[in-house]
Design goal:
single chain; six-stranded mixed β-sheet; 15 helices; 17 strands
């Protein structure tokens, strides 16, 4: 757990001429794309990778980098980590949540002179991107089912993480498509959630791990041991496999309510403006990662306390006579968390579901979401798959109406007052676009 020594923000970083030219092309193409209303990170990143297939590695060279990955909480934790690191100086980050190789290229191209980065990385992409970025810190949040038609079962993702961390710990791994022959042994320190069996199994091969008792309210995807196929037992003490030695490790950091308890016994309150216990857990993971970078816990907590929204999430907007709070949830674990932070009944709720490429085409996961929690509220179902959602709400015993217009139009059907709007990935993106 020896802290790393990130470069001083004042350290002059001198990218090679070719890197500067590629980055300029990324920024220019991204700027044109944004002016045309088509976004900028993805297109700019594609241009960069077309010009230099090793752009991720080249742009990362000479920088101290922390990556954040997991099924839920990546964007929020990355925002919080970036805020904590900025207590010690400037940080580059992919604030909009573009977390594939294209998004990483775009983020690093935006500021070539910044020596430190906090980057969100897609969980299915991490095993490849980590070998290119050579991060100093890898934060592993959780693993649960998400877009099974694209990613497969979660053990597949965990296995990729496990292989990647095992190769790093064994003295280096080939960097796919990268200019370096190997990744230096022990280059990455892992900050991992001790309460998620899949994360613990994935992180086992890592040489250097800080375990954080961040919690795991959703355990449906951790019922079977990823190591031996035995039964995972969860209790008040933690969790363990009934058939093999896989068990919850002793955490270095733990939460006592909203107080983070450090390995040395130091207690720091995480006074967030973001709602939900799960965001306190995200902040605990970010604080542990920032501490490894040498940021004092108190300074990290104070910096994170200023975050009020994350890429539009938790933001409140005025729609006619309504104050609409925007929430995003994309899979059963995320929906369980989102439904737990709704305004008190009878606050009306708009629920939006699409099944586009970025959401996953299969909406059968709706049957795993505890929509029964919406009983007693006025509920409107919206989105491309509003009728699928309507069937699920019917069997959950939730009276509702179906609105085939936009979710923001649905808000206008309520009496004046507060409204919660919860949508999955592309529903949320459409709502933000509609507010521009």
């Amino acid at each position: 757990m020896t802290p790393t020594a990130p470069p001083s923000p004042a350290t002059r970083h001198r990218p090679a001429t070719r890197v500067r030219l590629v980055a300029a092309a990324v920024r220019a193409s991204g700027g044109v794309s944004r002016k045309l209303g088509r976004g900028g990170s993805v297109i700019g990143g594609h241009v960069g990778l077309r010009l230099d297939k090793d752009a991720v590695a080249h742009l990362a060279e000479g920088r101290w980098i922390a990556t954040v990955s997991g099924t839920n909480g990546k964007t929020t934790t990355t925002h919080l980590l970036a805020a904590a690191l900025e207590a010690a100086g400037r940080v580059v980050t992919n604030a909009a949540g573009a977390n594939l190789r294209t998004g990483v290229v775009a983020a690093l191209s935006n500021d070539l002179w910044c020596t430190r980065a906090a980057l969100e990385v897609d969980e299915a992409t991490l095993a490849v991107v980590a070998t290119e970025l050579r991060p100093a810190v890898i934060v592993l949040l959780n693993l649960s089912r998400d877009q099974l038609d694209r990613y497969g079962e979660v053990r597949i993702i965990g296995g990729r993480w496990r292989t990647m961390l095992g190769q790093l710990g064994a003295g280096g791994a080939p960097a796919p498509g990268g200019p370096m022959a190997t990744v230096a042994a022990g280059a990455a320190h892992v900050v991992a959630n001790a309460d998620d069996p899949l994360v613990v199994w994935s992180a086992e091969p890592a040489r250097d791990v800080t375990w954080v008792a961040a919690g795991a309210a959703w355990t449906a995807d951790a019922a079977v041991c990823p190591e031996c196929g035995g039964v995972i037992t969860h209790d008040d003490v933690g969790w363990r496999c009934d058939s093999c030695p896989l068990t919850r490790p002793e955490p270095h950091y733990r939460l006592d309510g909203d107080v983070l308890v450090a390995p040395d016994g130091q207690r720091v309150q995480l006074a967030l403006q973001l709602p939900g216990r799960f965001n306190v857990a995200n902040a605990a993971m970010a604080a542990a990662a920032a501490a490894h970078a040498g940021v004092p816990l108190a300074a990290a907590a104070a910096a994170m306390a200023g975050t009020t929204e994350v890429a539009g999430r938790y933001r409140s907007v005025t729609v006619g006579a309504h104050d609409v709070r925007l929430l995003m949830a994309k899979n059963p674990a995320g929906w369980q968390e989102a439904l737990g932070i709704l305004g008190p009944p009878p606050t009306p709720v708009i629920v939006g579901i699409n099944a586009r490429v970025a959401d996953g085409h299969d909406p059968s996961w709706l049957w795993d979401v505890p929509f029964e929690l919406l009983q007693g509220r006025t509920v409107v179902a919206t989105g491309d798959r509003a009728r699928d959602l309507s069937v699920r709400l019917h069997y959950a015993g939730v009276p509702h109406t179906v609105h085939l217009g936009t979710p923001l139009d649905a808000a206008r059907t309520f009496p004046p007052g507060d409204v919660d709007l919860v949508g999955n990935y592309t529903v949320f993106a459409d709502v933000l676009e509609g507010l521009r």
